[in-house]
Amino acid sequence: MDERVFQFKAGRPIPEWDLRHRLSINRAVSPECKDSGTIFRINSTYMDVSDQPFKERQWLAGGVLASCLGVATGMWMYYLTRVLYPNAGGMLGDLYCLALICTFGLVAFRLGRDEFFSLRRRPTRFNRRERIIYAIRRRRFFAKPGQGDVTWEVPWGENTIFCIHRGSANHRETYHIRCYEVDESGNVTRAFAIGRTWEGKECMGDLLSQWNYWCWYMNHGPEDLPKPLLFFKEDESSLESFLFCMYDFGMRASAAYRISMMPFILVMTSHRLMALWTCRDPVWPEAVVNACVLDPDDPFDEPRGNTPVGWAETALALERNEYPAGAKCAMEHWHGESDPELNALLWAEDTPPLH
């Protein structure tokens, strides 16, 4: 579920389940390290990671468009009962129309302001040199020179709290990684989600391996880091939008299933494209740009050269055996459950294993 639909509650403690599932930045949480589809770019200074709604923004865009349709319906009903057929609905009908307009209007505004006429992506930048995470949160329409978009900064340290957050969607449990900032009393001041959503307990292993991946980068650098699942395109094309929506209906779905679902896939693609076409690229504040200057000869600056970027290029490279499929590595000095799937099931419980 999109983090913007059910947001954190500022001024209250971190949810108990989340706090029990706090993630350490210095100790491995699973026996494997791998990316599961969160990376825009990697170099020796920083790594750009997707925000949690990025891969599924077509669903929220569809919800916003449906809410706009609800507002239009309410206005049309009011026009019918007050202009074409005066007093046909009476005061009760007027109140119903007003409630319809206000309810759908509020939903369209609250969710649509970050979806339409906003930003094409909201990257989270892990800067290992400065030991800081920068997260672009919202478009700034009237920015002063060098101010850039609204960006949060949190230190990479033990005082910043990273947790697994559990939710539900489509009658399944969902999980994503949240960063919490708290005040002196332990109450949340702000929070944001990083990476993507993982659905079902069986995917908890990928979440834990993903956390190991980010920690490995921040603690050891990119030298021995496995190749990511793919590098997302920063300039998303129509084909990429279509593939995002198609894979959202199942990464390993059969051709027959995809053909049967094609009308829905095309509708969701249109939602994603409409959102992207009204948005612009994010602008980092000048201070962040200055803190993320690259060495021009950085050997780990990716993607570049023949490195595939995006779903389509990566799929072709995999067929030609020019890009590793599911690259991963084992975590050294791991003392927990050696089977990643069993370890994941332990973490999915209300009380996770000690680590």
Outline the structure in words:
- This protein is of the alpha+beta class.
- 37% of the residues lie in helices and 17% in strands.
- It contains ten helices and ten strands.
- The strands form three sheets. The protein has a five-stranded antiparallel sheet with strand order 2-3-4-5-6, covered by helices on one side. A three-stranded antiparallel sheet has the order 7-8-9. Strands 1-10 form a two-stranded antiparallel sheet.
- Strand 2 (39-42) and strand 3 form a beta hairpin.
- Helix 2 runs antiparallel to helix 3 (90-112), helix 2 (57-84) packs across helix 7 and helix 5 (238-248) packs across helix 7 (262-277).
- It is globular, with a radius of gyration of 22 Å.
- The two termini are 28 Å apart.
Please outline what is shown here.
This protein is of the alpha+beta class and 355 residues long. It has ten helices and ten strands.
Keywords summarizing the entry:
single chain, alpha+beta, five-stranded antiparallel beta sheet, three-stranded antiparallel beta sheet, 10 helices, 37% helix
Write down the Rg: 22 Å
| Tally of DSSP β-strands | 10
Proportion of residues in extended strands = 15-25%
Q: List low-pLDDT spans.
A: none
Number of helices: 10
Mean pLDDT: 88
Please state how the strands of the largest beta sheet are arranged side by side.
2-3-4-5-6
SSE string, helices as H and strands as E: HEEEHHEEEEEEHHHHHHEH
How helical, in percent, are the residues? Answer: 25-40%
Terminal CA distance reads: 28 Å
Query: How does the major sheet shape up?
Result: 5 strands, antiparallel
Could you say which overall geometry the principal axes of the C-alpha atoms support? Answer: globular
Structural class: alpha+beta
